Amino acid sequence: MITRSLPSPAQPLLPPSSKTLNPSRQNIIPSSDSRKNPNFEPLNNSLIRQLDVGHLCHAISTLDLMTQQKAPPDLTTYSILLKSCIRFRNFQLGKLVHRKLIQSRLELDSVVLNTLISLYSKCGDVDIARSIFEGMGNRRDLVSWSAMVSCFANNSMELQAICTFLDMLELGFYPNEYCFTAMIRASSNAKYSWIGEIIYGSVLKTGYFKADVCVGCELIDMFAKSSGDLGSAYKVFEKMPERNLVTWTLMITRFAQLGCARDVINLFLDMELSGYAQDRFTYSSVLSACTELGLLALGKQLHSRVIHFRLALDVCVGCSLVNMYAKCTANGLVNDSRKTFDQMPAHNVMSWTAIITAYVQSRECDKEAIELFYSMISGQIQPNQFSFSSVLKACGNLSDPYIGEQVYGYAVKLGLASVNCVGNSLISMYAKSGRMEDARKAFDILFEKNLVSYNAIVDGYAKNMKSEETFLLFNEITYTGIGINAFTFASLLSGAASIGAMGKGEQIHGRLLKEGFESNQCICNALISMYSRCGNIESAIQVFYQMEDWNVISWTSMITGFAKHGFAARALEMFRKMLETGTKPNEITFVAVLSACSHVGMISEGRKHFNSMYEVHGIVPIMEHYACMVDLLGRSGLLVEAMEFIN
User: Fold this and answer.
1) pLDDT higher than 80, residue 542
2) Burial 53-67 (b: 16+ CB within 10 A, else e)
3) Distances (CA, A) of 200 to 34, 164, 174, 236
4) Residue 25 pLDDT > 50, yes or no?
5) Sign of torsion, CA 240 245 247 253?
6) Cα end-to-end distance, the chain, whole Å
7) CA-based, 20 to 30 A from 453: which of 139, 521, 577, 596?
């Protein structure tokens, strides 16, 4: 229940210096007395000039000089100085000015007190801001109330912001655009979104929606943050009579954060046609969208643009470029990512984590990722939870739990070991190294397990041929009520396939149909793999042709299934159909194709596909491809050629 009672004026606040904010009226210096001193005007003008150029420390020195020369600053000067401290976000100096203001014994007016509320609000000292507000009594005006509502909203105290707003209305104050903006911000979560919709109606009715761009921006943010309702957010955007760079970038950023990559690209193009210049945040979001969609060509064009506009050296843009080149480049080569990283003039934890993650995701670059991690900590950059998560994945890929345990020990030292993503990566690292007992211990000590934690341990058991434990954990997940996603089912199907338990696989198939996952691409791919590995190639074909859309994994799973069951001609026919659909093959696809050629001795066909890997598809052959070619030549009795090929 929300109580709406106006706080009674409190006793004067005790500031950091333990002196009162509102001194007794005796011995108060009238603010006009100082103007009689001939030194006041020149010193005061000098102080204001220093503030205009951001020299706050010099301004404080001038303030002290004015006091020494018996030309003390008046309330207007103090107010300007406090606002400058807020503008330049130098809150410690702002607090120092507050102490000097108390020592001046000037009688504070509502303008100065409102500025003090804003100061303490912005530096997170909510209790002091509230004490100043309560101590104002009947001197509170609309600005005071708006500042206090904003203070609570900005410091994640949404309920207090709403109660203060209601108190303000009861006292007859009508909100302005700043107050509405703060209230919308307080409603930007699922719990209070219904209040935000009421405020939306009010701002439309009062005309503040059309009068102030900030109101529209907060409404867009509210719909995106509270419920992910991008449709309503876009309607607000379309209704706005005036849009600026901030508005466009906000829309693009929110669409990017909620995974609507194609909409991000479309919005960016609309923004371009509207004649607005983009900033680093715009480009960062659009580059992330290019990464998600695999649009390397567009990403390279944007890279040229950011170089032209001198934004490429920005850390935020640099990280997006590093990530894009790592994920979009064929074969996961990280040359372009590394060049982008090396060209950045300065690095922080974000840029280091981006390049480490790029190396981990690029396959066979895990040692380099660990070396980069060592370089990072040698350069006095403290890793965050995402840095540790990526490095632990690298250790898992290398099956090197020794280094992984050292990395985890450092995470413990920094107090990050209890973070879910670090714990989950530790589980995966032990599982990939075959140390399932340690993986289970890491799982059991996790303070708060989520679905990713369960998926990590289930996948570990499945890949280590411990199907009994896999299915026991599946039952545990069901009882916890955490829910099951596509990855869980894919891991269970992998577990069934690893021991040839087609009966278990069929049970899982029935369960996922019941859960509504039958059209999920990831699960369908796992079903194809499970049925083909268990010897039921016809069921695999049936699942394949029931799919709404195929990706490279779908095609590769079918080609592998045909190859392993001796249907080389059908495997090669499936590969031909795959190329006709425009699907780009990967390294694993060619392993399956070359294996099919090897099983039936198709030497010329095998050579043709091996040569096309790099010449046509830009894929550099790896050890598995050479092994398939040696096997093909050896099975065909061409031992001399096989030896030459090896050499």
Assistant:
1) yes
2) eebbeebbebbeebb
3) 48, 18, 15, 10
4) no
5) positive
6) 81
7) 521
Cα separation, 642 vs 624, whole angstroms: 15
What's the burial of 597, exposed, middle or buried (CB within 10 Å: 0-12/13-18/19+)? buried
Closest by CA to 47, choosing from 70, 73, 24, is 73
Query: From its phi and psi, is residue 54 left (phi > 0), alpha (psi between -120 and 50) or beta?
Result: left
pLDDT for 222: 93
* Helices (H), ranges, 486-622: 486-498, 502-515, 521-533, 537-546, 552-564, 568-580, 587-600, 603-615
Whether 119 has a pLDDT exceeding 80, the answer reads yes
Q: Which residue in 592, 629, 636, 635 sits closest to 610, CA to CA?
A: 629
- pLDDT tens profile 511-536: 778 777 777 788 888 888 888 888 88
Mean pLDDT of 484-488: 76
Residue 473 has pLDDT above 80, yes or no: no
- Going by the DSSP 8-state scheme, the letter that residue 33 receives in this structure is G
Query: Coil, strand, or helix at residue 434?
Result: coil
What confidence tens digit (pLDDT) does each residue in 273-297 have?
999 989 999 999 999 999 998 899 9
Q: Give how far Cα 447 sits from Cα of 450, 453, 457, 478, Å.
A: 10, 11, 15, 19
Lowest mean pLDDT across 57-71, 444-458, 575-589: 444-458
Q: What is the CA radius of gyration of the chain?
A: 32
Is residue 333 very low, low, confident or very high in pLDDT (cuts 50, 70, 90)?
low
Give dist(CA 395, CA 404) in Å, integer.
5
Task: Quote the distance between the C-alpha of residue 617 and its chain's center.
Answer: 33
CA distances from 20 to 107, 192, 305, 411 (A): 12, 37, 56, 45
Token pair of 380, please? 């006095």
CB 358 within 8 A of CB 351: no
Distance CA(213)–CA(211), nearest Å, equals: 7
Strongest mean pLDDT among 14-23, 385-394, 548-557: 385-394
Q: Long-range contacts of range 587-591, CB-CB < 8 Å, 24 or more positions apart?
A: 587/331, 587/619, 587/622, 587/624, 587/625, 588/556, 588/560, 589/552, 589/555, 589/556, 589/559, 590/619, 590/621, 590/625, 591/624, 591/625, 591/628
Structure-model confidence comparison of residues 264 and 34, the more confident one: 264
CB < 8 Å & 24+ apart, contacts of 477-486: 477/451, 480/449, 480/454, 482/449, 482/450, 482/451, 482/454, 483/451, 484/451, 484/515, 485/451, 485/455, 486/517, 486/520, 486/522, 486/523
Characterize 158-190 residue by residue with b for buried, 16 or more Cβ atoms within 10 angstroms of its Cβ, and e for exposed.
Answer: bebbbbbbebbeeeebebbbbbbbbbbbbbbee
Written as one string, the DSSP assignment of 314-328 is: SHHHHHHHHHHHHHH
> How far apart are alpha carbons 643 and 543 in whole angstroms?
41
Q: Are 178 and 148 in contact (CB under 8 A)?
A: no
Inter-CA distances, 251 with 153, 216, 233, 236, 242, Å? 21, 11, 8, 10, 14
Which amino acid would we find at residue 553? I
Report yes or no: 521 and 557 within 8 Å, Cβ to Cβ.
no
Q: Residue 530 in contact with residue 539, Cβ under 8 Å?
A: no
For the beta carbon of residue 28, count every other beta carbon within 10 angstroms. 13
Q: Tell me if 616 sits within 8 A of 579, measured CB to CB.
A: no
